Amino acid sequence: MEGQLTTPSHGDVGTGGPQKVPLSQLIHLMAEYQKLGTHRQTFLPAPASDTFVRGCGIVAGGFTAVGVICVTVGAYPGALAVGLLGLVPASLAFFRGRRNRRHRAARLDLFDVGMTVYRSGEQVAGFRWDSAEVRQQVIPFQNSAHTEYSLRMSSPDGAEAAFDDTLFGDAREWGRAIQSAVTLAQLPRAVAAIDDGATVRLGEIALDLAALYFHSRAYAWEQIQLIDARSGLVRMKVDGSWVSLTPVGQIPNFYIFNELAERLRLAAAAEFAAESAATEPADLELPTGTPAAEPDPATPAVDSDPLTPVVEPNPPTPVIDSDPTVDNAPETAAEPQIEPPTPAAKGTPKKPNRPTQDLSAASN
């Protein structure tokens, strides 16, 4: 299988037994085959926690002491029962110690463009950042007191590897390094694909410019208000209601999914806000434009036509009382009272200019 190397054994070379290739050489061969670049860092197995083993040993020793006392006093049934109870912690300590010894052969190596993983009794697996899929069971958050790092790696050539913080030390360091490297290598390609109108699939979830798709259902980005994964389950708030999608561990390259979803969601929200802002001023211009047309410098002169007899520049002013045009002044004053809200009524105050022309004609 590509991407994996077993620990081969050579034939007898004068010693009568097979000789194994050193682990470091196997890792070097895998790195050369996968073109992983320069070696950067090595993570060895986490220090074996002897607390559990010591605790089981102490308990087993206590049962042994009680059993010896029972034998001394002749209580053989009690000694047998205590001996059986003492086998439980002794067995746990034995198997835990055996597991710790087996894990000491594990090794995790990071390179410029990939990584290798080896566990005792398994094959050396190699992965490239630009093609690997990472599935993480629990996503860490800034306010998390304790974070468990459990990764499952897979590649297009069929290589697979699973490891967690109980196997390799400094889990926070290698966990962040792996996720960051995969995201940086594959995110630009996913963004370019979506910009070109393609659909990006990440497990059971698919994304494009229009919507998020899950189980044959489409959720438009304008409807999605929030995406959350704190409970180990990816959920999103759609039009005020929470919709559950899939567990975090089933989404390959979760950080790429999260980045794409947030970009598309925020872009849709910004576009919607811009459209709303563009339509609001147009609605406000209608009421604010009409009062500006109300003031007319000519209207005071029209309203004061009945008072023009006070100004007596010419002797023929008595003709004003007998002129039929004077009767039109009350009619023009009554027009604004009929339709005051309409712009047409407010724009008609220029009509009373006709009586002033008649008045000048009459005065001539």
Report on the structure:
- The protein has 364 residues and is of the alpha+beta class.
- The chain has four domains: 4-45 and 105-193, PH-domain like (Roll), CATH 2.30.29; 50-103; 199-272, no CATH class; 299-363.
- The chain is 45% helix and 20% strand.
- The protein has ten helices and 17 strands.
- The chain has helices at 23-34, 50-73, 76-103, 171-195, 254-292, 299-303, 319-322, 328-338, 343-347, 353-363, and strands at 4-5, 9-10, 19-20, 39-43, 107-111, 114-118, 124-128, 133-136, 150-154, 160-164, 200-202, 205-207, 211-214, 217-220, 224-228, 233-238, 241-247.
- Strands 1-7-6-5-4 form a five-stranded antiparallel beta sheet, with helices on both faces.
- A hairpin with a 2-residue loop joins strand 11 and strand 12 (205-207).
- The longest helix has 39 residues, at 254-292.
- The protein is elongated, with a radius of gyration of 44 Å.
- The chain starts with a strand and ends with a helix.
- The relative contact order is 0.08.
In angstroms, what is the radius of gyration?
44 Å
Quick check: average pLDDT? 75
Helix content: 40-55%
Q: What share of residues are in beta strands?
A: 15-25%
Q: Strand arrangement, largest sheet? A: 1-7-6-5-4
Oligomer kind: single chain
> Strand count, sense and closure of the main sheet?
5 strands, antiparallel
CATH topology name of the largest domain, in short, is: PH-domain like
Helix/strand class: alpha+beta
The name of the CATH architecture of the largest domain is: Roll
